[in-house]
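Researcher: Here's a chain I'd like modeled. Treat it as a single chain, no partners, no ligands.
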Amino acid sequence: MPAPQTVPCQYRTGKTLGSGTYAVVKEAVHIKTGKYYACKVINKKLMEGREHMVRNEIAVLKKVSSGHRNIVTLHDYFETAHNLYLVFDLCTGGELFDRICAKGNYYEADAADLVRTIMKAVEHIHAAGIVHRDLKPENLLFRTKAEDADIMIADFGLSRVMDDDKFTLLTEVCGTPGYMAPEIFKKAGHHKPVDIWAMGVITYFLLCGYTPFDRDNQQQEMEAIIRGDYKFEPAEYWANVSQTAKDFVRYCLTIDPAKRPTATQALQHKWLADVTPHFVPDPESASGQPTNLLPHIQKQFDARKTFRKAVLGMMAMRRMSAMPVKTSQLALDVEQYRKDAEEEHVDEVLAQPEDLNSPTTPTAAASSPALAPSPSSPGRAPSPATAPAPTPASPTPLLLLLLL
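Model: Modeled as a single isolated chain. Structure tokens:
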């Protein structure tokens, strides 16, 4: 069998920015323009039998990302003999809650502004026939460190394209437990309303620093979600939050998905729609200024983060000690495959038919034939003869995105 034909790669990859179960994310620079991106590198051995996951993520992002300022854009995708590469926006502004905690003040109106912006992006996603299924603060990133930077919805790995003309319900259990809607746990079928439930949980979190269904273990958490068992407690954390905000949370956390609001209806709720912000005046302010929510929020968030880190560390140690030899070897193989993906030096990528038939210089970032993309893949440009490697002066993100 003849060796697959290749063309020059139009990106140079640099330092590693993050890692997940099946992928690593590296900084990448476009050779011709010098622009920096986040490049998700997926080892093909890890994706055997799971190719549909990458194909689905590309299909979703091609439908919703381009042109919307609050949704991470997929700019390009290509492959080598060993790895798949997805090229995304490089978000350097950090994760949502870390950004909030770094501020000196944070008011209910700030939370409403964030929720309004995210909900408008969800409205756009739903209008395109997509359900995200993994909305949570960790997947909400800021484009830059600037004060007015756009907040971005990232990680469409669990998203699905829904055919509204032929209404179907998804039945697999997926997502992050604390943000999953009751119908997902019930396996009764789910659709776009699961994203509105997640927005209700995110809103609650943005107002107090913890999630409404936080319990001692996942079983208790799941049972609480199915029952819709949550309260606005402890009182000291909610005394400075308006009833309008609490009503919005209740609206989104409607147990029956058929009665839950759409994104458009949620945007019409007075907490988001009213021109005058809703807030509880600071009792210590003579002029009736809104209360700064940051001290309580930061206290709760920091305490839970420390506790969660300790618990996850203990669970990981127990899993490793109880792991059978075969499973343990598999875990080591996965780690090695991921390391191989991280260390690959990319000069050439697999060619597309349009690259081989072109009478001019071949394109540098050929889209992956295994994923059957359209010929109009974004980010294509002739490759220059020489290319600089990424420079040390490139931006350093606080958190990277879209890890499988």
